[in-house]
Amino acid sequence: MAQAPSFRRHIAHPGLRELYDHWLQHSREGIGMPRDAFDPTAMPRLLKNLILSDVGDGGRAIRYRLVGTEIVAAHGFDYTGLTIEELTSGSTLAFARRLYTLVVSRAAPVYSEGNFRWAEKEFHWTKRLHLPLSRGGEAVDMVLVGQFYEAVVGEDDLLLPAEPAELAADRAAAGCRGA
């Protein structure tokens, strides 16, 4: 028997599943979650692993509004207020823009895993969940990211956008509005 569609089942970290469930409860099909529905006090233990970004130009322009302490520690500095171009370049810049562009263009979550190395720090495996937010309710203009690092390095990078049928099934399973 075929497994029912579900984006949630692809998310391989319990903290990211918790973040996704919160987003599902407050999101609307086709736009994501209203920014004012995101209550960081509802998930205090996840705050250190969150990034909140302003986005424009279809997801290519990215400015970091908030960067959690675990992410700051992994990078070695706080990049709150910086743009993506001020933070990185080359293939890392291209990959970040690809992630954000998928979230913005689809108004849907994107889950990814891959190697992370910053400057002279050791490699880590990172699991990321990018979630669309909207201040005005008409377009995705912010992205909420959950990111966790693991010492164990995986084998293959993964980039997985949510499909509409998966989101609909997850919303229905969670009893969310807009299902």
Helix/strand layout:
Blueprint: H1 14-26, E1 33-34, E2 50-56, E3 61-67, H2 69-75, H3 84-87, H4 90-106, E4 110-116, E5 124-134, E6 142-150, E7 158-161, H5 164-174
Parallel strand pairs: 1-5
Antiparallel strand pairs: 2-3, 2-6, 4-5, 4-7, 5-6
Describe the structure.
The protein has helices spanning 14-26, 69-75, 84-87, 90-106, 164-174, and strands at 33-34, 50-56, 61-67, 110-116, 124-134, 142-150, 158-161. 29% of the residues lie in helices and 26% in strands. It has a single domain (8-33, 48-174), classed as Beta-Lactamase (2-Layer Sandwich), CATH 3.30.450. β4 and β5 form a beta hairpin. It has 179 residues and is an alpha+beta fold. The longest helix is centred in the middle third of the chain and has 17 residues, at 90-106. The radius of gyration is 16 Å and the shape is globular. It contains five helices and seven strands; from the N terminus they run αβββαααββββα.
Major β-sheet, in short?
Answer: 7 strands, mixed
Helix-strand pattern: HEEEHHHEEEEH
Unreliable stretches covering 5 or more consecutive residues: none
| Separation of the first and last Cα atoms | 24 Å
Tell me, what's the shape? globular
Main attributes?
single chain; 179 residues; alpha+beta; Beta-Lactamase; seven-stranded mixed beta sheet; 7 strands
Can I get a quick summary?
The chain has one domain: Beta-Lactamase (2-Layer Sandwich), CATH 3.30.450.20. It is built from five helices and seven strands, in the order αβββαααββββα. The protein has helices spanning 14-26, 69-75, 84-87, 90-106, 164-174; strands at 33-34, 50-56, 61-67, 110-116, 124-134, 142-150, 158-161.
